[in-house]
From TrEMBL:
Domain named Transglutaminase-like: residues: 246-302
Protein name: Transglutaminase domain-containing protein
Entries under InterPro entries matching the protein: Bac_transglu_N, Papain-like_cys_pep_sf, Transglutaminase-like
Ranges annotated as spanning the membrane: none
Domain of life: Bacteria
Pfam short name (any one): Bact_transglu_N
Length: 376
């Protein structure tokens, strides 16, 4: 698959911050009348695909087993049963509907809505993206850390445009954190500040107080500090709010809480990455943090017990990406499903793009993540 680079993903659609438990998708921005090029292909355009397309790694059609998962009744599972299960199957459905109040054309839209093939103990069994416009062209590219991004191009945009993502994911039987090479502990990619995570003097001072010789304890302290000092308050920030601004305001949503924790961890010398994903149930996308810890310091992953408690190894890989949720001040357990990881929100924006036209687009997002299979 030929990769394609695009310009102009930073535009924000009015009213695009979705409701729900915690999320902030960005919609495509109009470039009509700006005098700037809406999009520039830096490499040859991939061959057009069907409007209903599965990622390159997925089967072209669902198997009988997959069909059974789609029709299965969701299970009501308490945390104890979920933690003790050897295998958990999840069904994910997500819809992004854009309604345009005027003409729109030459749409180039990027979507990060399907999970990676593997992420720790999480395995993607099936994934597909459906676009309501039959003339849409869909191509796929792979990014760092297994990220799967779809690019949808459309010459003439209808008044209502739907993107629907569907996936089947399994977790288990061995509950493990994602393994990373030892080089990730010192590489600049997850240690360097970004525009959204750059620490100011306040964050640097807090990180200095929280840092200690035990990396796991430091990570937990950073998580707890965010939980105690950044109130969850929808509408208090925008998708462009930085970690420093969220700290100054004392409030934000899960995106902001994740950025603040990342800023603290990196300032304390711990590599950290942003996680886009879902919590079981209804609502919007969620965000949390993975902190890269050396071999021997990762705690047991929440779930099926496989031995004594205490620091565990990363399977000899050199490092493990331990997931913590500062919005709830806890380790991410089997209620969480990962879609993508990156340096910050900009790397994994679930929906973004550009188009030409005078009309504005309004985004309505809905999703549901259900447990449909459980093996003891």
């Amino acid at each position: 698959m030929v990769g394609v680079s695009f310009l102009g993903w930073s535009g924000r659609l009015a009213g695009s911050r979705a409701g729900g438990s915690c999320a902030a998708p960005v919609g495509p921005a109009s470039t009509e009348g700006t005098g700037a090029s809406a999009v520039q292909d830096l490499l040859p355009r991939p061959r057009p695909a069907l409007a209903t397309a599965a990622p390159p790694t997925a089967a072209a059609s669902a198997t009988a087993a997959t069909a059974a998962v789609w029709s299965a009744e969701p299970l009501a599972v308490d945390e104890a049963r979920l933690a003790a299960a050897s295998l958990v199957t999840y069904r994910i459905r997500q819809r992004l509907r854009y309604t345009y109040d005027g003409p729109a054309h030459d749409l180039v839209h990027r979507l990060v809505v399907l999970p990676p093939n593997r992420h720790g103990d999480q395995t993607s069994r099936h994934g597909e993206l459906t676009v309501s416009a039959p003339a849409a062209r869909v191509s796929w590219e792979r990014g760092p850390d297994g990220l799967r991004a779809a690019t949808v191009t459309l010459d003439e945009v209808p008044g209502v445009l739907d993107f629907e993502a569907a996936a089947i994911v399994e977790r288990g039987p061995a509950v493990t954190w994602p393994e990373l090479p030892a080089s990730s502990l010192t590489g600049r990619r997850l240690l360097a500040a970004t525009a959204l995570t750059a620490p100011d003097e306040t964050l640097l001072a807090v990180a200095s107080r929280l840092a200690g010789p035990d990396p796991l304890t430091t990570a937990r302290r950073c998580c707890a500090w965010v939980f105690e000092n950044i109130a969850y308050l929808p509408g208090s920030t925008t998708v462009g709010t930085t970690a420093a601004q969220a700290v100054a305001g004392g409030a934000g949503v899960c995106q902001d809480q994740a950025h603040v924790m990342i800023a603290l961890c990196r300032a304390a010398g711990l590599p950290a990455r942003y996680v886009l994903g879902h919590l079981v149930g209804d609502g919007a996308s969620h965000a949390w943090v993975e902190v890269v810890l050396p071999d021997g310091w990762a705690p047991p992953a929440p779930g099926r017990s496989r031995g004594p408690s205490g620091p565990s190894t990363a399977g000899g890989a050199g490092a493990a990406a331990v997931a913590l949720d500062p919005c709830h001040n806890r380790l991410a357990d089997r209620r969480y499903v990962t879609i993508a990881t990156g340096r910050d929100y900009h790397d994994v924006m679930p929906t973004s793009g550009v188009y030409r036209g005078s009309g504005r687009g309004l985004l309505a997002a809905s999703q549901r993540v259900e447990i449909v299979g459980l093996e003891a």
